[in-house]
Amino acid sequence: MHPWIAQRTTTFDASGIRKVFDLAAKLTDPINLSIGQPDFDVPESIQEAAIDAIRGGKNAYSPTQGIGPLREALSKEIADRFGHADRDVFVSSGTSGGLMLSMLSMIDPGDEVIYLDPYFVMYPALLKMCGGVPVPIDSYPTFELDPDKIAAAVTDKTKMILLNSPANPTGVTATAEQLEAVAKLAADKGIALVSDEIYSRFHYDSDFVSPTSFNPDTIVIDGFSKSHAMTGWRVGYVHGPREIIATMLKIQQYSFVCSPQPAQWGALRAMEVSLDGHIEDYRRKRDLICDLLQDDFEFTRPGGAFYLFPKAPGDAGGEAFVHRAIERGLLIIPGNIFSDKDTHFRISFAATDDTLRRGAALLCELAKEA
3-class DSSP state for residue 323? Predict the structure, then answer.
């Protein structure tokens, strides 16, 4: 290792998703079920709002906390939902930026953070950057949030519980009862509760419930990337207790500075855009891919997001199955990128119906060969 490289960078590897994309670059016209972003473009009115901002000279730094109109609109929406007196909001540089700021603001070396396995790939890496200790909770085979398992993992070093519902990579949604139990556990134990709600609008079988409804000190991370196909625009937002938000803003001032200003004006317009048609379309896509694969694969039917996390057939494991799929021109993601286990793989059903049908046909063919 080069002598200038910091030791903290050796505690985690580069994202395995990037390795899959490197393999994908060698393929011609692959069947792509790997991308974790919507397959529709940014709605035109949002594009126009950002263009108007650029042409109107709104190209400088914004305030670190975000442009006033967007923060005001977010504050009103959040106040209407929760009504908490001690709750502030700021605009982050994407939800990934919000996650990093939350870790840097609250995690000291040696602090333990509890989250479910499988998990979003960033969680353990961000924790290790801060010197935190990841405490993954095995949620196989159903991937449900089990409050008793969370409670059993709490120690005197537990600083944070990190929730993600609907979840990446499983698409599984926690019930209101499960969320309430964990929210009250965190409150009773004085543990920080961070809720990653980036897929909150992709909820198919019931209304979305935030643990914030049961614990007023919950820190929520959300954004516009997935809901409005604005993944490259880097506009997220974080809300929670004022002192926590102020600390996160202090770090943002010396790191990200601010979210791109023209994109924030686009996000303001996005708050007026109805997503009902897109959400209904993704519910239909969820049903389609589940129907196509149910005879050949074991999986938990996702209640949200746009992912399916099936068990790989045979005994070779998830990564070996994914390599076989890639060799046949199908891009999916091995489950061991998101987990300590190598038994599953992730499908994104954010794709055209034709792509889903072609991909499912090849997956079923590979399953019969396993």
Answer: helix
Instruction: Decide: 180 and 195 in contact? Cβ < 8 Å.
Output: no
Beta strands in the chain (DSSP E): 31-32, 88-92, 112-117, 133-138, 158-164, 192-196, 219-223, 236-240, 307-308, 330-331, 333-334, 345-348
The pTM of this model reads 0.93
Question: From CA 339, how far away is CA 335, in angstroms rounded?
Answer: 6
Query: How big is the chain, counted in residues?
Result: 370
Helices (H), 231-345: 242-253, 261-270, 276-293, 318-327
- Which residues share a beta bridge with 162? 194
For the chain, domains (ranges, CATH) are: 7-42+275-369 (3.90.1150.10), 45-270 (3.40.640.10)
List the chain pLDDT tens, one digit each, 370 residues.
888 988 888 887 766 666 666 766 777 788 999 988 888 889 999 999 999 999 999 999 999 999 999 999 999 999 999 999 899 999 999 999 999 999 999 999 999 999 999 999 999 999 999 999 999 999 999 999 999 999 999 999 999 999 999 999 999 999 999 999 999 999 999 999 999 999 999 999 999 999 999 999 999 999 999 988 888 889 999 999 999 999 999 999 999 999 999 999 999 999 999 888 899 999 999 999 999 999 999 999 999 999 999 999 988 899 999 999 998 999 999 999 999 999 999 999 999 999 999 999 999 999 998 7
